Amino acid sequence: MTLTVVGSIAFDAVETPSGSRDRLLGGSAVHFALASSQLADTRIVGPVGDDFGAEEYAILHARGVITDDVEHVPGGKTFFWAGRYHRDINQRDTLQTDLNVFEDFEPKLSPDSSGADVLFLGNIQPELQRDVREQCDRARFVAMDSMNLWIDIAHEALLQTISLVDCLVLNDSELKQLTDEPNLIRAAHKALDLGPRVVIAKQGEYGSAMITADGFFGLSAYPTSDIVEPTGAGDTFAGGLMGYLAAHADEIDDAALRRAMAYGTACASFNVEGFGSERLYELDRAEIDARVAMLEASSRF
Amino acid sequence: MTLTVVGSIAFDAVETPSGSRDRLLGGSAVHFALASSQLADTRIVGPVGDDFGAEEYAILHARGVITDDVEHVPGGKTFFWAGRYHRDINQRDTLQTDLNVFEDFEPKLSPDSSGADVLFLGNIQPELQRDVREQCDRARFVAMDSMNLWIDIAHEALLQTISLVDCLVLNDSELKQLTDEPNLIRAAHKALDLGPRVVIAKQGEYGSAMITADGFFGLSAYPTSDIVEPTGAGDTFAGGLMGYLAAHADEIDDAALRRAMAYGTACASFNVEGFGSERLYELDRAEIDARVAMLEASSRF
Fold it and tell me: Where are the beta strands (DSSP E) in B92-161?
């Protein structure tokens, strides 16, 4: 089964208490694809500038990510984000965000990308997400992310896009903000009323929760003691989640969604153990499976 | 098997977005005992004033709580706490704390109380906790709570008390503060180095986690959408936890501790569904068992 992700492709600069980097391969679609490609063939859709070259493509190709729909904008610069993490690595400040080639991005998917069985709409402008969703009319399962910015400045467009997907994946604070409801369970049910049949709340260091009309599943985060730099952890979670679902697209039921969350959790735990996505470059599937097994053992009673 | 809890017995006044109460039966030992008594015979140790009377004793006795070691201080007033909850019920401000009879409390346990198999040291001054712990020299399993106040003003005494218990139960933020370590797993291992063989982090709306030298267990909170007033949720969690352990004191192993956390989680979920502990007054064991079963189903994959 095939998986397409649309989202940002970026260079990130980060400062952390244990060191800093001024040019990391990043962006929601990149973090996502480096995880999902462990589990399913993944096509990545997004724009890059002249500064995105052979080295970056080589990283994606080494993991088997299909980059035919990466759009090179001649004369443009790749999306850039800079941030500083606190001693409590769960806290960060954004220092700089340069949209660059993203400012005029109009996704046009090739037939191979738009024909995917499973689609993930990474965190970009809701109108663009809707445009991509409408191009992928054969997808059996569509999930999306978003962020506080779009909840604030493109609320109606965001609600419309949410109505077109099967699954909404959001930080729990954003889910509460979206629905103006401080209780997670009520917030999730308000989000279900917008259209999706599945809502997944990302809870950072605490883990994640899945809420459906008649069900609940909660999973703690992998107990990582060596967090180097957590940028993209949520995107990596979505990558592991959707990669697993793409590999099991014949029957995306409650059991598959639960196991998919464990794959997302395991992938995210590797992502935070290095700068950028570096820890994912050389990862093999057996390492992911081992953490999924550990999560299974550490959540049973 | 018998269980003794020492802690505060209080009157609470609370304001919430959905209403307010000016005199609720509260205090750490009360919330604890109203939960633990569902699972094991519970003796409660703590001081009260002249304002604590037949009505309050009747509530405890209706649940079978043994009050022989409740110390009446003639002319004194019972501990009083007042707080205001925000629209996000996870946020609160303390409005007033009157120690009253707690100021001169010196716990003296009867032979029946000091002979308990299982002991819980609720959140009181660490020197008093140590004093009680030393009186209960036959206890097979001893756990304790604490709070940011004692971490700040009685740090050394707190470390000494921690060295004398089997299990430390703390809010995750307090665990991080105690050990000056922002990563939960590292913080828990630093706490294990102080002496206990089990550290349990209470994570509020997210759930709880247990860390031992070579193990990890994470459990989401029960998915409650009707939170009325959460005062004492952590104490109720500890009550369910320790009640279960007292009923299984012959073998307090990893499996028993995990199931005990589920009982604590279930009890806490009832506590937050009403003002004070009111929801626990008429609760029966079958309702608790049903939520434990639901937690089991909602954490498996």
Answer: 92-98, 118-121, 141-144
The overall pTM is greater than 0.95? yes
Integer Cα distance of B138 and B250 in angstroms: 14
Shortest CA distance to A86 belongs to which of B112, B182, B226, B243? B182
Quote the CA–CA distance of A193 and A196 in Å, as a whole number.
7
Give the integer Cα–Cα distance in Å for B290 and B67.
29
Query: How many angstroms separate the CA atoms of A265 and B274, rounded?
Result: 34
- Count of beta carbons in the 10 Å neighbourhood of residue B124: 24
B109-154 residue pLDDT tens: 999 999 999 999 999 999 999 999 999 999 999 999 999 999 999 9
Edge-to-edge strand list for the sheet holding B41-48: B70-72, B41-48, B2-6, B118-121, B141-144, B167-171, B198-202, B207-212, B215-220
Verify whether the Cβ–Cβ distance A206 to B211 is below 8 Å.
no
CA distance B103 to B35: 26
ipTM of the complex: 0.95
pLDDT digits 0-9 by tens, B143-191: 999 999 999 999 999 999 999 999 999 999 999 999 999 999 999 999 9
- Distance (Å, whole) CA B204 – CA B227: 12
Gap from B72 CA to chain A (nearest CA, Å): 40
Interface of B with A in 42-71 (CB under 8 A): none
Q: Where are the beta strands (DSSP E) in chain B?
A: 2-6, 10-16, 19-26, 41-48, 70-72, 79-85, 92-98, 118-121, 141-144, 167-171, 198-202, 207-212, 215-220
Alpha-carbon distances, residue B118 vs A229, B134, B242 (angstroms): 42, 13, 8
B180–chain A Cβ distance below 8 A for any pair: no
